[in-house]
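Final report, Chapter 2: Outcomes

The project's central promise was a pipeline that accepts a single protein chain and returns its three-dimensional structure in a standardized token representation, suitable for archiving and comparison. That pipeline is now operational. To close this chapter, we reproduce one record exactly as it appears in the project archive, with the input sequence first and the structure output second.
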Amino acid sequence: MVRISGVTLKDDKQIETALTYIYGIGRSSARKILQEAKVERYKRVKDLKPEEVKRIQEIINKNYKVEGDLRREVMMSIKRLKEIGCWRGIRHIKGLPVRGQTTRVNSRTVRGNVRKTVGSGRKPPPAPK
């Protein structure tokens, strides 16, 4: 098992895919990192040499904000929006879509599966005993 930036990468994955398990690194960033580190992108994690792992780790530490630092920065940005009371901040507080999506029908992802309307009219009255 290889650990990079505090994340354990699965041995059977290709290194390009495995790097995307690190928060803040996507497919294109992973390709750039591997190209700079001169590592074959189709190589499996278990086949990496320790010096290759070290080169990848150094490039990530030098050029990218990942994991805890990035999560903290994102949370601070959202907190700032909430404090100044802007539109996006209010939407974050209410748990609604922030980027202009319609909420009349489709906003299940951000709100969870909250169904606020009644399905088919009123409930029937309880049956007498």
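Archive annotation: The chain has six helices and two strands.
This record, like all others produced under the grant, will remain available to the consortium after the project formally closes.
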